[in-house]
Amino acid sequence: TVPKEPAVLRQNILDTAAAILACGIDPEKCLLFQQSLVSEHAELAWILGCLTNVPRLLRLPQWKMKHASQNNEGTVGLLTYPVLQAADILLYKSTRVPVGEDQILHLELAQDIAQHFNKKYGEFFPVPKAILSEL
């Protein structure tokens, strides 16, 4: 949600991929891709955003904290980021999502969006469940 210089962003993407591979992720067993190159993420986020009300997003604690820390100048991207997260989860019809405690409310939003979509258009998205990570 924070603009980056294109060259820095490209390098960050490469560095992240290298770190993932260095952690032992085997590309022969896992699909590794650059999410920003998959237009369906943004397309589904738009559709889901049209089903999500603004007051619900304004109540999320992460928005409140970041909005306040940015002198109440938070961007639309920051406000709608949880909808993009929901699209990231629902696009792949994920059933279990590893999250930390700080992301539970965002996963609950994804669950609510999936249920709302399914009620309106028929059963399409599984309602994802949280797998809480342990520290």
UniProtKB/TrEMBL annotation:
GO terms for molecular function: ATP binding; tryptophan-tRNA ligase activity. GO terms for cellular component: mitochondrial matrix. Transmembrane segments: none annotated. It comes from the Eukaryota. InterPro entries: aa-tRNA-synth_Ic, Rossmann-like_a/b/a_fold, Trp-tRNA-ligase, Trp-tRNA_synthetase. The keyword Ligase applies. GO terms for biological process: mitochondrial tryptophanyl-tRNA aminoacylation. Its EC number is 6.1.1.2. It comes from Psilopogon haemacephalus. This is tryptophan--tRNA ligase. Keywords: Aminoacyl-tRNA synthetase, ATP-binding, Ligase, Nucleotide-binding, Protein biosynthesis. The keyword Ligase applies. Belongs to the class-I aminoacyl-tRNA synthetase family.
